[in-house]
Amino acid sequence: MTRTEGPSLACVIGRARRLACAAVGGYSHTSPPRRRRMLLDQLARPLRSLRLSVTDRCNLRCAYCMPEPDYVWLPRAELCDFAELAELAALFAGLGVDRIRLTGGEPLLRRDVPALVALLAARLGAERHAAPLAGPGAGRPELALTTNGILLADQARALRAAGLDRLTVSLDTLRPERFAALTRRDAHREVLGGIEAARAAGFGARGDEPLKLDMVVMRGVNDDEVVPMLDFARELGAELRFIEYMDVGGATRWRADAVVSRAELLVAVGRRLGVPEPLAGRGSAPAERFRLPTGQVFGIVASTTSPFCLACDRARLTADGMLFLCLYASQGVDLKTPLRRGAPRAELAALLATVWGARAARGAEERLAESERAPLVPASQLRKNPHLEMHKRGG
Ligand code: SF4
Fold first, then answer.
1. Could you give the CA distance from residue 378 to residue 253 in angstroms, rounded to a whole number?
2. Ligand 1 within 6 A of 269 CB?
3. Would you state the pLDDT for residue 80?
4. Strand partners, 290
5. Which runs of E-coded beta strand occur in the chain?
6. Cβ of 6: how many Cβ atoms within 10 Å?
7. What is the CATH architecture of 9-28+40-393?
8. What is the distance between the alpha carbons of residues 10 and 1, in angstroms, rounded to a whole number?
9. Which among 111, 338, 355, 369 is most buried, taking Cβ atoms within 10 Å?
10. What residue's CA is closest to ligand 1, atom 2?
């Protein structure tokens, strides 16, 4: 399962550590803000966004992510505590990250996530100005969260008050019985309640970032709800994103014929609601956005049939502090151990800078080039190396 991840990670880490030790004291916080410099990888992609997993646990078992009967969880003692998550987030922010998305598993299963959001907002706000790679006058990174919505009703207001900027709720069907079949949990009503609470808390309010809904479309499972889900999103004033079924680690039941492609989605929508017009300005965002003749905007994340690796500026951190440079990566870099060992900030920053600098990952593009496509990692291997699971690296 070797992928193009550049020189072997082991030698990158070795070089990084040597450089890090040499670099201690390299980064001074007194340097005046300058024109924005960015940390680029081997494909000149800047480090701009971080998916920060706060737990690998989930209260759903979605067929496209966790179809297996049982899972190997990260030991609780290995999970980064809030102070460590904030320290690592600040490290990334100091190297140019300006978007941080909290993910899981299901992030709201971690106790007191609003307190973590408040800590991140305060810490990153305070630090941003001193960061060598921060843009002049840069504010704190934007904080976003993706949830399955089940625990949202009780936490939406607190998340908003804590400083959460954006919210995305995963919802793959409007039918409770289909939800139960797809997720092996009977919690559709809670998800709808969570969405209502999020709107009441101000997420997606006029002039604010729209509330986002993510729908993974699978042929013969929920592809007949593409237009009804668009109608539902329109009524809510939310922005729906269709996500192609991905063959990432954990999707052990993935089949190519179950993928509903970007092209098919556009035809299905166009047939009923008029031809969608592509919107410019995608940048590095995973979703390509379209506007319908009605003015409604929606997105498509076409990682399987039309990947966008060359614009990918995302790093992923697992809840136990492992850095992954790609959703398809087979190896990660442990940032928690040096952090717990008390490594100086500059040493950690140099390690991260070197690892990112050596990044050449294009996992989805390489998968697309493969003639015989099957699930990426067999279930037996996932049990041996749980970090290969998508739900461990925040999807
Ligand atoms: S497959 Fe990897 S490189 Fe490509 S967009 Fe996804 S995370 Fe980025």
1. 9
2. no
3. 98
4. 278, 298
5. 49-53, 99-103, 142-147, 166-170, 212-217, 239-244, 277-278, 288-291, 297-301, 314-317, 322-324, 333-334
6. 18
7. Alpha-Beta Barrel (3.20)
8. 16
9. 355
10. 326
Averaged pLDDT, groups of 10, the chain, 395 residues long? 48 55 44 63 96 97 94 94 97 94 97 97 76 55 97 98 96 98 97 97 82 97 98 96 94 94 98 95 86 97 94 97 96 97 96 97 95 88 92 88
345 vs 173: CA distance, rounded Å: 45
DSSP assignment of 236-276 equals: HT-EEEEEE----TT-TT--GGGB--HHHHHHHHHHHH-PP
Q: Hey, CA dihedral for 337, 339, 342, 344, is it positive or negative?
A: positive
Cα–Cα distance for residue pair 84/89, rounded to 1 Å: 8
Coil/strand/helix, residue 328: coil
What does the pLDDT read at residue 37?
66
Q: How many CB atoms lie within 10 A of CB 243?
A: 22
CB distance 363 to ligand 1 below 6 Å: yes
How far apart (Å, rounded) are the C-alpha atoms in residues 319 and 105?
Answer: 9
Beta bridge partners of 242: 215, 300
Q: Can you tell me the distance from the alpha carbon of 214 to that of 217, in angstroms, rounded to the nearest whole number?
A: 10
The values of phi and psi at residue 110, to 5°, are -75, 135
Angle at 62 between CA 59 and CA 67, to 5 degrees: 105
Q: Say what the pLDDT of residue 18 is.
A: 57
43, 53, 309: which to mutate for ligand 1, most atoms within 8 A of CB? 309
Edge-to-edge order in the sheet of strand 297-301 = 277-278, 288-291, 297-301, 239-244, 212-217, 166-170, 142-147, 99-103, 49-53, 314-317, 322-324, 333-334
Strand partners, 170: 214
Give the DSSP per-residue string, 45-84. Answer: -B--EEEEES-S--S---TTT--SS--PPPPGGGS--HHH
Is residue 309 within 6 Å of ligand 1 at its C-beta? yes
The answer to whether the CB of 58 is under 6 A from ligand 1 is: no
Distance CA 312, CA 301 (A): 13
Q: Is 324 in the pocket of ligand 1 (CB under 6 A)?
A: no
The residue to which tokens 């966004």 are assigned: 49
